[in-house]
Specification:
The chain is α+β, with helices and mostly antiparallel strands. The chain is built from 9 helices and 8 strands. The chain has 2 domains: 158 residues, no CATH class; 77 residues, no CATH class. The chain is globular, with a radius of gyration of 19 Å.
């Protein structure tokens, strides 16, 4: 099985074939979206960025139901998830005043943009070799992916694989028997203060010069072909010579 992140980042030949105009789009100013806030410039240990991001996401969920929730409580609520990915880093982690400020700013920026009918961590059913996965948020008819990359050495607020990860979720949703109603897609970087947004069908056409259904069917077929290729290889490996 492969994850949506691995597919988005490593399967370059597929993306270049089926989204031939993406490179040009990514090189343009369109991918930046709009700036809605200043970058967070509070000192932070690079090894602790991931943990602060996880806590910020949890804190966003918590303050939506309890505006008085503290960052300390959100940290405790985040520990089970943190331990799955980085238990060693968590053991070395200390929730400093600077980190509380970083987490609070991120969570409040997300909450300031997304409210109302929310689905946190929406599940998407796998297909072929693609495993089941979860997005970050659905707000109404908008699929939102939070990417809290730091501003370093002129780095752009979003990476190519961030856009592809969104498209992977949308493809799995399209192929599902009970899909969500997703019409728009957002990438939001609460650290750098950038929001990219697009109509889903329009974005697909801009980067692929084809329809949404054609692209998503191609993604589904690719997952199935990968699964069949591995099954064939295993049968050959296990066969008697």
């Amino acid at each position: 099985m492969i994850s949506e992140k691995k597919f988005a980042k490593e399967h370059q030949s597929f993306w270049e074939e089926h989204t031939p105009l993406f490179r040009e789009y990514y090189a343009s100013s369109n991918m930046l979206g709009k700036k809605i806030g200043k970058p967070i410039e509070i000192p932070e240990d690079s090894l602790q960025v991931y943990i602060n991001n996880l806590i910020a996401t949890t804190h966003f969920k918590n303050i939506m139901s309890d505006p008085d929730c503290t960052v300390e409580k959100s940290f405790i609520d985040s520990i089970p998830v943190i331990d799955v990915f980085s238990r060693k880093k968590r053991e070395d982690y200390s929730l400093t005043d600077d980190y509380i400020q970083i987490i609070t700013i991120q969570a409040e920026r997300i909450a300031g943009l997304y409210s109302g009918k929310l689905i946190h961590d929406p599940p998407f059913r796998g297909c072929g070799l693609m495993s089941n996965c979860n997005g970050d948020l659905i707000c109404g008819t908008t699929l939102v992916e939070i990417k809290a990359n730091r501003e370093m050495n002129g780095r752009k607020p979003f990476r190519p694989e961030d856009f592809r990860q969104l498209l992977t979720y949308c493809a799995l949703n399209y192929l599902a028997p009970d899909p969500y109603d997703i019409r728009k897609i957002h990438l939001f970087n609460p650290r750098m203060g950038y929001l990219w947004q697009s109509d889903l069908e329009e974005f697909v056409y801009l980067i692929s010069n084809t329809t949404m259904s054609d692209l998503f069917e191609s993604i589904g077929n690719y997952f199935s072909e990968l699964s069949e290729s591995i099954d064939s290889a295993m049968e050959f490996y296990n066969s008697d010579f």
